Every structure is written in structure tokens, then in C-alpha cells.
Amino acid sequence: MPVITCIDDLKRLHKRRAPKMFYDYAESGSWTEQTFRENVSDFEKIRLRQRVAVDMSNRTTASTMIGREVSLPVALAPVGLLGMQNADGEIKSARAAEKFGVPYTLSTMSICSIEDVREHTKAPFWFQLYVMRDEEFVDNIIARAKNAGVDALVITLDLQILGQRHKDLKNGLSAPPKPTLKTMIDLSTKWAWGLEMLGTKRRTFRNIVGHAKSATDMSSLSSWTAEQFEPRLDWSMIARLKEKWGGKVILKGVLDVEDAKKCVEVGADAIIVSNHGGRQLDGAVSSIRVLPSIVAAVGDQTEVWLDSGIRSGQDILKALALGAKGTMIGRAYVYGLGAMGEKGVTTALQVLQKELDISMALCGKRDVKDLGRDVLLVPEDFEGRWQ
Q1: pTM for this entry
Q2: What is the mean pLDDT of residues 130-134?
Q3: Contact call for residues 302 and 270 (beta carbons, < 8 A)
Q4: How far apart are CA 212 and CA 141, in angstroms?
């Protein structure tokens, strides 16, 4: 067993173990991938302020996210097709999150269904909703989430239409993989992945197939999903969804102060500053660059979290010090899942927690809730001087 010391170690194992189309699905952005890259590289522009001769004993990374106690202020973000990175991937990720004491968010586009995850977990999880044209499907999936004890609804705002990801088109991405010559050659080298997939019945989008009237099998599913994302999604529709849900609502995909204010107006319990991991509008600014302005505008009215670009505990520290009350990780735990299943997700969380804990202490802080801008050295033009 290799020694895992950082998230990049898991990334290398993930690439080696998973089929190319699914690794590429996780490790890609839209168009030129500029935003995808800058989500990570912009974190590197912020420096940490080392402090010495301070008491570093009795440290804690525990916090809360929308009133829920967490072992560290991190939630597992919704990621589609997790069950193709590793067999039953959503169940394994939810179990790892539950044992570690952090929230797990199930994607609408998951391989394992809401009911699958509920059956195999004890702690409440969150559910991410893509708003579809099929209102009956949306109403039903909200009801299914309620019946499963989901305690927060995450509504994604930045995917009314799909950004183009070149790798997915070139790889012929599908779940399960189509038996083309190129795909079969690749799968022949991923025998461990294949054996695990043979051992599960969960190999397609089980939140959709059998629940959407016009998506009854694999042949109809692809056309259904291509046509279904709701381009008319607006603030009035979001307000109606919030009322229909009746519980805590988290709005994901905010990059603009004016949009953040609208989130507050519709009563969001938390806002996630996110550009969908660089998978939607290429050329958009990184999440960490816009975080301070959104915190300044609405941080006293709702919880502001950050998603997109986190690859280390130091990244989490920087986000919290810039005012985020929580963070979401996607690729960081997907690498672990693809590399080693449930154990890999746990390992990813352990790596992040250790890096956060040690870095926080060396910055002179013992409690993650005490992190502020005083632990950072931020370039004067970090947020950009845009005309």
C-alpha cells in the first residue's frame, strides 16, 4: 500500500485505476480550462502569516455548517457519476462522510439513488437539485428527498445550460460505458475497477431511470438529460422551490455580489461561492478571488461557503480566513474514491484535516472558528482591478 501524504497522491492512484473517460470527467473544465486551472493557482497567490511563541495545545477543527456540527468545516460537494469512479461510489462517499462527521451531498445525476444512499447510511445527507423542465419529476424527487430524511436542499444555479467539456465529447462519456473498441481497450487495463462494477446492480442514473416518464431505459436517458435542464430558472422559480421544499436551502453557483444579494432576498440558509469547478463559464473569475467581496456584501445575513479549487487543508484555511463559514470539496475526495473507495474518501478527509490543523497552529490559532484575515498575506490586487 503506497504512503498517502497529500491529495495529489490520491489523484495519481485514481488516474491509474479508473477508466479514462471517468477520470477525465472529474479532471476537466469547460473550453480552454482557464477557470478550472485558476481555481487552484489563485490559492497559491495568498501567503500564510507565521506566528511563533504562542500556545498551540488543545487545537480543534470542529465547527458548524447551517447549524450542523462538523468535525471540520467541509462538506462533500455533489458530484455526478460517482458510482462510475468506484462501484457504489455515492454510498461509499456518504458512509465515509458520516463516519468522519461531515455532510455528504448527493447529486441529482448520481448513479446510486436517494433511496440507495438512505438504505446504507444513518446520518442525514443533503440533496443537490438540478432544476428540470419536467415539473412532475422535480416535484417527485423533492418528495423522495423528504421521505429519505434529507435535511438540506442544495439548488444548483449555474447549470441552466451545459458548458462544453471537450474531453467528455471525445471520450464518448456515458454510464455505463458504451462498448466501443477504444473503450474496451481501456477497460481491459482496468480489471480491478471492472470486477467491482460487475458486483453491483447500480450502473446508471438511478435517480432518473424509472422515475422520469420519458427516461425508461438507457437509450432514452441521454436524450432526456440533454433536453431537461431548465433554461428559464429565475429567482421567482427558486423562491417557489424553496417554499415547496419547506426546509433549509443552500444556493450553489454564485460568483457575483448582486446575485449573492438576490440569494439573501429569497431566504437562502447558505450561499456557495462556486463556478462549478470551472466546468461551466470558462473565463470566469476563480471562486477564491470573489469570495471576499461576497462575504463583505452578505456575510452578516447568511452563511457564505466556498467551493471550487480546494486541494489542501491550507486552501481550506485560506477560504475560512477570508470569511467563508464553510467549504465544499469535490475533486479532492473524488480522487480518493477513485483510488481506494470508501477508505480513499476517508484518507482524503484525514489529509485535509491534518494540513488544516498544523497550518492553523503555525499561524498562531488553536480554533478553526478564530481564523481571520490576520493570518493571511493577500496581494493588494488579489480581487482584481477590473474596469
Answers
A1: 0.96
A2: 94
A3: yes
A4: 10
Tell me how far the alpha carbon of residue 55 is from its chain's centroid: 34
pLDDT grade for 54, boundaries at 50, 70 and 90 = very high
* Greatest C-alpha distance within the chain: 65
182-234 tens-digit pLDDT: 999 999 999 999 999 999 999 999 999 888 877 765 556 666 777 889 999 99
Residue carrying C-alpha cell 446520518? 123
225 neighbors 208 (Cβ within 8 angstroms):
yes
Burial bucket for residue 182 (CB in 10 Å: 0-12, 13-18, 19+): middle
CA distance 348 to 47: 23
Please name every residue paired with 347 in a beta bridge, in sequence order, or none if there are none.
none
Q: Say what the pLDDT of residue 308 is.
A: 98
HEC secondary structure over the chain: CCCCCCHHHHHHHHHHHCCHHHHHHHCCCCCCCHHHHHHHHCHHHCEECCCCCCCCCCCECCEEECCEEECCCEEECCCCCHHHHCCCHHHHHHHHHHHHCCCEEECCCCCCCHHHHHHCCCCCCEEEECCECCHHHHHHHHHHHHHCCCCCEEEECCCCCCCCCHHHHHHCCCCCCCCCHHHHHHHCCCHHHHHHHHCCCCCCCCCCCCCCCCCCCHHHHHHHHHHHECCCCCHHHHHHHHHHHCCCEEEEEECCHHHHHHHHHCCCCEEEECCHHHCCCCCCCCHHHHHHHHHHHHCCCCEEEEECCCCCHHHHHHHHHCCCCEEEECHHHHHHHHHHHHHHHHHHHHHHHHHHHHHHHHCCCCEHHHCCHHHEECCCCCCCCCC
Measured distance CA(384)–CA(123) in Å, rounded: 41
The one catalytic residue in 14, 120, 211, 276 is 276
Report the chain's mean pLDDT, rounded to a whole number: 95
29's grid cell: 473544465
Q: How far apart are CA 71 and CA 346, in angstroms?
A: 13
- The confidence score (pLDDT) of residue 214 equals 73
Q: Which three cell numbers stand for residue 213?
A: 416518464
211 carries an active-site annotation: no
Task: Write down all domains in the chain, each with its CATH number in brackets.
Answer: 7-46+64-353 (3.20.20.70)
Burial of 376 (0-12, 13-18, 19+ CB in 10 A): middle
